[in-house]
C-alpha cells in the first residue's frame, strides 16, 4: 500500500468524522424565514433534537422535542444513522491508524496491516453512506413539504447543516475507497514481486544441488 494514499485517506476520514460531529448538534437542519410579517417571530429552525425560534430582537428560544415516539419516522431514522456514522468513523480512524505502514502496532506484518487498513476503509464507507442517507432523507422530506401546495403546516428550507453533512459523506466515501482499492492493489503487488523466505530458501537449495551435481559429473 502506498504510504501517501494512506495519509490522504486518513486525512479525508478524519475531516469527514469531524464534520459529522459538527453536523449533529448544528441547529440549522431546516430554516424558515418569516421576515416582513406581523408575527413577532422572524426565524424558525430545527434539527434532530430541538426546535428553535429567533424574534426580531435577536433572542433565541429553543425547545427540545418532548417525546421520541411522537417524532416523525424520518427524524428517528436520521438520528440513528448519524449516531451510527459517528461510531463507524471512530472505528475507521482507529483501524486506519493501526494499519498504516508507519505504525508499530502490528509489527512488521504488512499483510496484516493492509487488511486492518482495508477494514478502516470499510468503516469510512459505512460512515459516508449513513451520513448521506440521513441528510438526503431529511432534505427529501423538507422539499416534499415545501412543494406540496396542500401541506397545512409551516414550510421550511434546507439549512446549512445538511450541506455540511453532504460534504462529510463525500469525503468519507472518498477516503474509504482510497484505502480499500490501494490495499487491494498493494496486496497483489506484494504477492507478485516479493517472494517469501521459504521460496528464497528453496530456490537457493536447488541452485546448490544443481552446482554440486554438475561438479560431480564434470569429473566422471
UniProtKB/TrEMBL annotation:
Keyword DNA-binding: no
GO cellular component, one term: plasma membrane
Transmembrane segments: 7-24, 80-100, 121-140, 160-181
Alphabetically ordered keywords of this record: Cell junction, Cell membrane, Membrane, Tight junction, Transmembrane, Transmembrane helix
InterPro entries: Claudin, Claudin_CS, PMP22/EMP/MP20/Claudin
Pfam families: PMP22_Claudin
Subcellular location: Cell junction, Tight junction; Cell membrane
Family: Belongs to the claudin family.
Protein name: Claudin
Source organism per UniProt: Sinocyclocheilus grahami
Amino acid at each position: 500500500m502506498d504510504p501517501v494514499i494512506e495519509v490522504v485517506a486518513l486525512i479525508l476520514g478524519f475531516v469527514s468524522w469531524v464534520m459529522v460531529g459538527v453536523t449533529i448538534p448544528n441547529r440549522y437542519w431546516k430554516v424558515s424565514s418569516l421576515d416582513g410579517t406581523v408575527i413577532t417571530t422572524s426565524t424558525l429552525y430545527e434539527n434532530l433534537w430541538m426546535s428553535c425560534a429567533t424574534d426580531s430582537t435577536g433572542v433565541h428560544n429553543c425547545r427540545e422535542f418532548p417525546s421520541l415516539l411522537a417524532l416523525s419516522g424520518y427524524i428517528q431514522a436520521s438520528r440513528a444513522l448519524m449516531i451510527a456514522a459517528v461510531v463507524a468513523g471512530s472505528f475507521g480512524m482507529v483501524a486506519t491508524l493501526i494499519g498504516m505502514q508507519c505504525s508499530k502496532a502490528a509489527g512488521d506484518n504488512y499483510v496484516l496491516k493492509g487488511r486492518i487498513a482495508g477494514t478502516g476503509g470499510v468503516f469510512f464507507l459505512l460512515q459516508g453512506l449513513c451520513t448521506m442517507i440521513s441528510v438526503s432523507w431529511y432534505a427529501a422530506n423538507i422539499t416534499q413539504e415545501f412543494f406540496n401546495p396542500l401541506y397545512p403546516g409551516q414550510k421550511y428550507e434546507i439549512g446549512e447543516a445538511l450541506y455540511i453533512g453532504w460534504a462529510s459523506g463525500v469525503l468519507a466515501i472518498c477516503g474509504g475507497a482510497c484505502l480499500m482499492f490501494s490495499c487491494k492493489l498493494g496486496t497483489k503487488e506484494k504477492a507478485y514481486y516479493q517472494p517469501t523466505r521459504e521460496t528464497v530458501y528453496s530456490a537457493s537449495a536447488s541452485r546448490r544441488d544443481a552446482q554440486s551435481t554438475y561438479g560431480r559429473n564434470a569429473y566422471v
